[in-house]
């Protein structure tokens, strides 16, 4: 069975690794198409949220004031989601169109070559640096949306339970946990790929399964109490 999986994967790889296939254009087309479809569905839902009459099934459950507040909250979240979705789509298009991933990979390699000790250079270290650099950039770009969601949208409807101090402390804790768990797991992930060659996908699957089972055990005991 393993030989069959390997031969199938190798055959598929050789067929797809074709410079004549316009992968970038295809990915952009599918991404834009998916966004348009999701936006249409959100618009349909927004029209439902504009209704002023309580559905017959809920008339005995909630009053008009509660229903109006719920509808207003839903509309506010829908508008926020649309703006955030447009921004995310524009960002993803720019990343793909202007090859920002390869540029970031090259930048992390240059940084390590110029500033890191020799023992911290190599593919594994560069892979970790690339992953965390991308994660931090995404976090920074998403901060304005996260701040607005908690301290404007949620605050307006009385649902926000966070303070600015708690917001930033949770952010720092999240980044610290990402480093604490991400570095060893990511290093092991990349090391397995290096050590197992073309058969890496089976070993990565087993490793990922082990990590997931461990995370299910650790998360409620170690991570949840920190927040």
Structural class from helices and strands?
A: mainly alpha
Q: Percentage of helical residues?
A: over 70%
> Can you write the helix and strand succession as a string?
HHHHHHH
Q: What proportion of the residues form beta strands (DSSP E)?
A: under 5%
- The number of E-state strands comes to 0
Number of helices: 7
Mean pLDDT: 88
Low-pLDDT residue spans? none
Q: What is the 3D shape?
A: globular
Query: What would you report as the Rg, rounded to the nearest angstrom?
Result: 23 Å
**What is the CA–CA distance across the termini?**
45 Å
Main sheet: strands, sense, barrel: none
Protein name: CAAX prenyl protease 1 N-terminal domain-containing protein
InterPro entries: Peptidase_M48_N
Transmembrane segments: 128-151, 171-193, 200-222
Keywords: Membrane, Transmembrane, Transmembrane helix
Task: Summarize the structure in words.
This protein has 7 helices and no strands. With 227 residues, the protein is mainly α. It has a domain at 21-98. Helix 2 runs antiparallel to helix 3 (64-97) and helix 4 packs across helix 5. It is globular and about 65 Å long. The two termini are 45 Å apart. Residues 45-227 form the CAAX prenyl protease 1 N-terminal domain. This is CAAX prenyl protease 1 N-terminal domain-containing protein. Keywords: Membrane, Transmembrane, Transmembrane helix. InterPro entries: Peptidase_M48_N.
